[in-house]
Amino acid sequence: MHRRRLMVSLPLAAILSACSPSEKKVDPEKRKTVVFDLEARVVTPDMWNPFVPGSRQDQGFHQALIEPLFMLNTENNEIEPWLAVSMKPNDMLDVWTLGLRPQVMWSDGVPFTAGDVVFTVNMLLANSPSLLFSAALTRH
Q1: 22-57: per-residue pLDDT in tens?
Q2: Tens digits of residue pLDDT in 71-97
Q3: Which among 131, 108, 129 is positioned nearest to 7, based on CA atoms?
Q4: What's the Cα-to-Cα distance from 77 to each of 64, 71, 83, 99, rounded to whole Å?
Q5: Rounded Cα distance, 47 and 116, in Å
Q6: pTM here?
Q7: Residue 48: strand, helix, or coil
Q8: How far apart are CA 108 and CA 4, in angstroms?
């Protein structure tokens, strides 16, 4: 199976250096490395699918590696765009139209499209409740 991850336009080194409390000189190769401080042994380090039971959901894994369509800003309780830029319901609130951020690419250079979103939602619906987070999509 070919593994891909979403690429956003912000360089990781810029994000990490902006969070750094000191300006000490860092080896350029180390700027390309992210270290997660895990308190437990990672039994399945090759498990990258966030929907499979037993996948990592702790220690910053999902915050750092899984790109959401939207994020909740807990300081002001507002939903902010991330991979999507808009969401609009119909009058019955049973159909939602998402606008996706342009120029988002997978790690292999393939554009992120509405087809990717549809595939993921359909996969979750077809495999509910076996996959994590899928049961919420089947509630009416």
Answers
A1: 566 778 777 777 777 667 777 777 777 888 887 766
A2: 999 999 999 999 999 999 999 988 889
A3: 108
A4: 21, 10, 19, 21
A5: 20
A6: 0.67
A7: coil
A8: 6
